[in-house]
Amino acid sequence: xxxxxxxxxxxxxxxxxxxxxxxxxxxxxxxxxxxxxxxxxxxxxxxxxxxxxxxxxxxxxxxxxxxxxxxxxxxxxxxxxxx
Length: 83
Known about the structure:
The chain is mostly helical and 83 residues long. The chain contains three helices and two strands. It has one domain (4-75). Helix content is 58%, strand content 5%. A two-stranded antiparallel sheet has the order 1-2. Helix 2 (28-49) packs across helix 3. It is found in: Membrane.
């Protein structure tokens, strides 16, 4: 649906998957762990740096890790911002 399977996709028409798979999760445990991580770390970081900078940092690092993962391991399915 939105997961990144780089090897089977037409790379030009599916570039949006680098962005959309940031908000997909592999299951309930993955979702809960990501939410706990956001609650624990991001609240502190938002107070210190502002929510716009943190949102940009989160999006860019997620897209970068998904791109790196797609280039290094093209046969795997990528979901989430963990990379």
